[in-house]
Amino acid sequence: MENVIRLLIVFGGTLVVTIALGWGIDRGLRYWSARHPKTTIPGLLRRIQLPLQLFLGFAALRITYPLADLELRQDTVILSVLATMVTMSAVWLVVRIADAVADGLLNSYSRRARDPRRVRQLNTQFTLIRRITSTVLAVATAAIAMLILFPGLRVLGTSLLASAGIIGIIAGVAAQSTLSNLMAGLQIAFGDSVKIGDTVVVEGEMGTVEEITLSFLTVRIWDDRRLTMPVSYFNSKPYENWSRGGPELTGTVFLYLDHSTPVSALRKHLYRYLSDHPDWDGRSWNLLVTDSTPTGIEVRASMTGRDSDAVWSLRCAVREELISWLNEQHPEALPRLAALEGFDKEKAPVR
Which end of the chain is more exposed for a tag (fewer CB within 10 A), N or C? Predict the structure, then answer.
């Protein structure tokens, strides 16, 4: 009975103290966030609640376990398992803290920065660095735990650490594509060729780069489909990056009209329409006859926008407006199919 009471006191007290300490830290972060609403780091640090509770709990159990005086044959194994859990939860806690601090710094910088390209670049670099660091920490933690805490598994732990020296030889034979994607991911992160948030055209599809990992890149297409491809694609094949060099773009609209089209009046109407449209940034515009054929002319209207979304909306709106204006004011300017001219329905053969 005495052993049971001592066991309840030791482990119950450990659980209560752990929960109280975790709750106090969370309340402190919440108070800090309320006192400094412009700082996002305290609110982001509240993500560490689960790994913090696990770390505190396993650490407290590792310290108080000898006080329970259970005298079991498995005491050594239990202590080793608790020490391993303390190490793993500590690594998880460090990764969560680093993520929260990185996100807070990125949010703070994005509010102050005037160049969205620099923000997207930092976001891409932070994302890849966090993935690489998390992977290295996970492998190193598993190897060190096997090497130090479990003497019977030292051979396996040593092999995990030693494998870093021969991984190049193994990967050169069996994992060339994986290493290629890894190196491509590092080149993308620090080479500034493509970033998270860039508007790209790949494989004939236009979309926004949504995620970059060590092995693949995800592009969210305009209709919300996801196009996933290896990151090495962006170092080996040509693609269009509409966000590189600045988000501003020039959009074009092509119309195929009759020779009788009043081009000057159409040009003036385009300028009046663009002047009142919120998506036009006012940098430049034009309307030119770019080609002429025996059956009609090709008219190109060009206009600028602040980003790819604005240019797309502006192109659609201009195309619709010009066709509607011509249909109302100058219907003769719209093309007609020559094969249908003079067609008499009454003389058409009956079948």
Answer: C
Are the C-beta atoms of residues 335 and 256 closer than 8 Å to each other?
A: yes
pTM of the model: 0.46
Distance from C-alpha of 129 to C-alpha of 125, rounded to nearest angstrom: 6
Question: To the nearest 10°, the Cα dihedral for 232, 235, 238, 239?
Answer: 70
Contact between 157 and 92 under an 8 Å Cβ cutoff? The reply is: no
The two most distant CA atoms of the chain are separated, in Å, by 112
Contacts of 85-89 with CB under 8 Å at 24 or more apart are 85/54, 85/58, 86/55, 86/58, 86/59, 86/62, 87/141, 87/144, 87/145, 87/149, 88/141, 88/145, 89/51, 89/54, 89/55, 89/58
CB neighbour list of residue 184: distance below 8 Å, 6 or more residues apart: 230, 231, 232, 234, 235
Q: What is the pLDDT along the chain (351 residues), one digit of tens a residue?
A: 555 666 667 667 777 777 777 778 777 777 777 776 666 666 666 777 777 878 888 887 777 776 666 666 666 777 777 777 887 788 888 877 777 777 777 777 676 666 666 676 677 767 777 777 777 777 777 666 666 565 555 555 555 555 555 544 444 444 455 556 666 666 776 666 787 888 888 888 888 888 877 677 889 887 888 888 887 787 778 888 877 766 788 889 999 999 999 999 999 999 999 999 999 998 899 999 999 988 899 999 999 998 878 888 999 999 999 999 999 999 999 887 654 444 454 444 443
- For residue 227, give the H/E element and its range: strand 226-230
Give me 12's structure tokens: 């119950």
Torsion of CA 323, 324, 328, 334, to 10 degrees: 20
Query: Helix 2-35 to helix 49-68 angle, to the nearest 10 degrees?
Result: 150
Please name which of 328, 329, 323 lies closest in space to residue 253, comparing C-alpha atoms. 323
